[in-house]
Amino acid sequence: xxxxxxxxxxxxxxxxxxxxxxxxxxxxxxxxxxxxxxxxxxxxxxxxxxxxxxxxxxxxxxxxxxxxxxxxxxxxxxxxxxxxxxxxxxxxxxxxxxxxxxxxxxxxxxxxxxxxxxxxxxxxxxxxxxxxxxxxxxxxxxxxxxxxxxxxxxxxxxxxxxxxxxxxxxxxxxxxxxxxxxxxxxxxxxxxxxxxxxxxxxxxxxxxxxxxxxxxxxxxxxxxxxxxxxxxxxxxxxxxxxxxxxxxxxxxxxxxxxxxxxxxxxxxxxxxxxxxxxxxxxxxxxxxxxxxxxxxxxxxxxxxxxxxxxxxxxxxxxxxxxxxxxxxxxxxxxxxxxxxxxxx
Length: 344
Known about the structure:
The chain has one helix at residues 242-245; strands at residues 4-11, 16-23, 26-33, 41-45, 50-55, 64-71, 78-86, 93-97, 102-107, 112-119, 122-123, 128-131, 135-140, 146-151, 156-162, 168-177, 184-189, 195-200, 205-211, 218-225, 250-256, 259-264, 269-275, 281-282, 287-289, 297-299, 305-309, 315-322, 325-333, 338-343. The chain is mainly beta.
């Protein structure tokens, strides 16, 4: 990490974005930006200091959309610039590719994914649209040649070549299966780009896929639980109330300190899974109870810090990361329904 950086937090229940200064292991809230109704995901272009936020309609009848905001690094202020309306449904995940000139999105409620060109902060109309039930996330490969969309509803990862014009073309094997009823949710690619890890919402596993860096194809290799076995959580199913039924409720994953960290919302835990040289995973040996219902968290680029938010909390927790252990450094006020965090 640099001596001073920023952390952005989306507070969906308040319709706001908090900007924090992160310096010397402490968070200082600089400003709170209003007018980002229901924001539950955003993507940051650090080269141009632009933020692309998925928002719901602020007025009855107004469609969801993607709002472009300019970031002032000195003050933390975010200024709206342009907006793309999405009448078919809002995005639950956004990711940039090709140095910020392309944007990928996944819509859970709409059951569709998009790619769009970006020019001077203006998000263009989708150039490609794909459809799978309950799409929950999307990420491009680091070289911008491939894209992976995770469908919770169909228990699969849809895999595509990403053309020069951002047009999506299915690979020879269009999908990579996840275990039936597992509810795959979010994914990360490792630094070598030869492995993809997917967190499941219902079964409480991290799925390990080997990735062919030439063809882009994924092959499921194994899985490991990220759930605290002492809590007696049951396997969830689509449409269930995980809190009422005491079911697994997996949420988010990020790498830090040589581990993959995963969050579980019913018991509000964070756990670190060790990654072997062959990419296989070992379940956590200990768990940290964090902010209530941690839908989202973020890790610093150097892996030295982790910040967690809770959907039923108004604060974020800042931790120092030491291997598979977390040390709480600070709790800071952010807003209601915090669910998405990113360092800049």
